[in-house]
Design a protein that fits this description.
With about 450 residues, the chain is α/β, with parallel strands linked by helices. The chain folds into three domains: about 70 residues, OB fold (Dihydrolipoamide Acetyltransferase, E2P) (Beta Barrel); about 220 residues, Vaccinia Virus protein VP39 (Rossmann fold, 3-Layer(aba) Sandwich); about 110 residues, OB fold (Dihydrolipoamide Acetyltransferase, E2P), CATH 2.40.50.1070. An eight-stranded mixed beta sheet has the order 7-21-22-20-19-16-17-18, with helices on both faces. It has a six-stranded mixed beta sheet with strand order 1-5-6-4-3-2. A six-stranded mixed beta sheet has the order 9-8-10-11-12-13. The N and C termini lie far apart (about 60 Å). S-adenosylmethionine binds next to loops.
Amino acid sequence: MSENKSQQNSVIVESIDQEGRGVARIEGKVIFIEGALTGEMVSYSSYRKKPSFELAQVTQIHKSSAMRVQPKCAHFGVCGGCSMQHLDARAQVAVKQRILEDSLWHIGKVKAETMLRPIYGQAWGYRERARLSVRHVIKKGKTLVGFHEKRSSYVADMQHCEILAPKIAGLLPLLAELISGLSIRDRLPQIEVAVGEHVDALVLRVMDPPSGEDEAALRAFADLHEIQFWLQSGGYDSIIPFHPLDAPALTYSLPEFGITMPFAPSEFTQVNSALNRVMISRAMRLLDPQPGERIADFFCGLGNFTLPIARSGAQVLGIEGSAALVERARQNAATNGLAGNAKFAAMNLFEMTEAGFTQLGSFDKLLIDPPRDGALELVKSLGGENAPRRIVYVSCNPATLARDAQVLVQIHGYTLKAAGVMNMFPHTSHVESIALFERM
Ligand SMILES: C[S@@+](CC[C@H](N)C(=O)[O-])C[C@H]1O[C@@H](n2cnc3c(N)ncnc32)[C@H](O)[C@@H]1O
């Protein structure tokens, strides 16, 4: 870029948005600049221009932020997996806390009485669940295994990943080499990763069955690197273990509650098991379940919060949309000796009504942990007389948390007692948070 042009579009960055982009304004137009940090003076190049905003990439930094750090990953900027590695790790959490507070205020018109101290976890190598893409690129003469490039359907040419569990990160180039030698290398578009305590499972999506030679190569790789391959020939229900067949079950444990959770590689589990433990501890402290109480755990998955609640002696009903996860949750309750006070039901919670909620009976407290879309219909249904007095809401999307908080506070009369961020996904823009609502 010429000196003149770079001077022309240099701006001061005012803040960072939900996706980790710097936000600047020129004559009322908002410019979202990837790679720019608050307080920096930068030049940028726009890749999309609209009347009210532009999407851009930083091209030059004229005045750098004190919070800027050297990204650890060689693929940062190309790989779409992380967007915040150029920002100091503690500053990332401060940004996420501000995004949470801003969302609550600007979207939900609510403010927490107390902001909880953020929960930090390990900064690197934390990601134990991932969906890796695979592409055999004839032009490059090799197979790529990794995340997608930023804003692209291309697979990033990754030799390593700093946020993936270290063992899996180290296998990326070896997996690429393995797959490039298979007869079905063009028919294997994806690998699902599930790291367990005693085994790491890699689910290969295979559009055609592997040949005998392919099978031998997969077996040798699994034995050498001590992983378990699974094959997926169609939908999720087609996933079957391939090799070794006598591998231990995938599990994670919650030692504070004496709980072990077996799971299948297709089933939802939190991506960061270390932070999951701390998150459950915080959720339990806020919920404070007591023997004799009746509690519901909505969007309960395989019972990640349900079983710790049951361990307190409370009666808990876990509700979840996936029948397979409900079945898994029931088995997990039985395995952990908690079947007496943890019950489960399958239900589409996006269709909850006040009458439907009343039919479930009355609850002292609720835990709600919805997907990104939030839990609008569920929170709308909480207006009746038997509405619970305490709700702990775990969220992976501050915008839907804020929207639902507005319903709870302004329509149903709850108070937002506390809220805080939990850094489940360091270096990415994902904001995981927790909020406590109470009603007199
Ligand atoms: C963020 S996960 C939380 C799971 C669980 N609480 C945990 O910590 O592992 C959200 C859960 O909501 C479930 N879900 C998604 N849409 C749903 C719906 N419409 N009704 C009920 N459950 C749904 C998913 O299957 C998933 O288990």
